[in-house]
Amino acid sequence: MTIINIQPLGFPWKTQDPFLFCAYHRDLYPAGDKHLGIPDVQKAGRNIGQDFMIKDGFRMYHGSHVPGFPYHPHRGFETITINKEGIVDHSDSLGGAGRFGAGDVQWMTAGKGILHSEMFPMLHDHKENTLEIFQVWLNLPKVSKMVPPHFKMLWNEEVPVIHQKDQNGRSTAVDLIAGNLNEVHSLDPTPDSWAANADNEVLVATIKMEAGATYILPKAQSSEAKRNLYFYRGTQLEIAGKTVAENHSIEVVATEDLEIKNIGADAFLLVLQGKPIKEPVAQHGPFVMNTQEEIREAFADYQETQFGGWPWPEQEQVHERNKGRFALHSDGRVEEKGI
Which pairing describes strands 258-262 and 236-239: parallel, antiparallel, or unpaired? Predict the structure, then answer.
């Protein structure tokens, strides 16, 4: 059977080794105030600091004034933050910082430990501030769990986009974030990533299909590869002859070409694929190691060192309103991309 399993999407989305976690966020934020946050009247009735229930179209998450995730630690894995709409402000304990927008991807190796914040500043004060992002957690093998932390930006202008028309002229666009498709190669991931070795067949891609379009997702070569599709927006697809409604994940056999027909409105999917790492996973909150002893060591190290401490004035650090897209790396290197 081409399709192994179909199940409704929850929060977060279920993933398979080598992935750990995938969260999809779409929030229809209102116009912001002069501090780039949510006006007080629109925060009323929320569990501030732990607001994960959609109310009036949005959530505050752990933010108190600016929505998002104030500084928190990670060790032992990677975060891949895919931005489709809106703005994300990054700051970290190594002195790194950045702002990225629609089409940009931040790939961060937590390695031996880092503190970072991911905030969603309300740059627009006269119109809505819609945000749409994915955050994917990709595990690190034991040999790489204690590498030095760092992040890399995959800028919108440089991410390969594969455009394809079917025999009826209907279009599909694939944003190739990691991996290879039809002899198109993604940008390089971080050097210590499981995705850095092409033999691991890690594929991360988003797909937009025009109404009525048909697309063939090429097969993986390795019989060990696992492949999941997440149909997060649209109405109906036909996959390998089976009808699938919006808000479902589809686990499929990776070693078969996969025919996807969009039989409804414009359809949007995320694809996650890779060979499993096949190592024990010990996880406690923001730490992912191989043993419980290593988890205890992670907590002890964090309590002692704070993974370098927090060099920024705010836990909910955001950058100036008129700042464009940029990345400041811990070695002082700066990338400026403008608005």
Answer: antiparallel
If you classify domain 161-274 with CATH, what class do you get?
mainly beta
- Helix residue ranges per DSSP H, the chain: 292-305
Query: How far apart (Å, rounded) are the C-alpha atoms in residues 28 and 51?
Result: 15
The domain limits of the chain are 161-274
Contact present, 115 and 18 (Cβ < 8 Å): no
pLDDT, residue 339, reads 76
Q: What are 209-244's pLDDT values in tens digits?
A: 999 999 999 999 999 999 999 999 999 999 999 999
Contacts of 114 (CB under 8 A, 6+ apart): 73, 74, 75, 92, 93, 94, 108, 149, 307, 308
Alpha carbon distances (Å) from 269 to 4, 32, 159, 196, 288: 17, 30, 17, 23, 27
Taking the complete model, does pTM exceed 0.85, yes or no? Answer: yes
Name the nearest CA neighbour of 248 among 265, 233, 266: 233
